[in-house]
Amino acid sequence: MDRPQPDFTIEDLLAETAAQEEGGAGGRTVTELMERTGRSRNWVLKQLRQLIMRGEARCVGRRMQQSIDGQLRQAPVYQLITQAEREQDGLR
Length: 92
Description:
It is a single chain. The protein is an alpha+beta fold. It is 41% helix and 21% strand. It is built from 4 helices and 2 strands. Strand 1 (57-66) and strand 2 form a beta hairpin.
């Protein structure tokens, strides 16, 4: 059975987050992206890895997040790199 495809991309979610945060700060964790997309951890990680390899996303820090066992743990937070930032860094 094929899983319905979301009508947005992981790039859309990261861009939406940047637009909502003051000054473009912030981002989303893998768990947040999984919840928003309804996709597996492996799918989200694969998408993020591709974005990072292309220089289009980065890890911007960590945020405390409750894990499945109820403990608070640090989770990486990701955001898109804007075209202006890529040009400033000499990318694309």
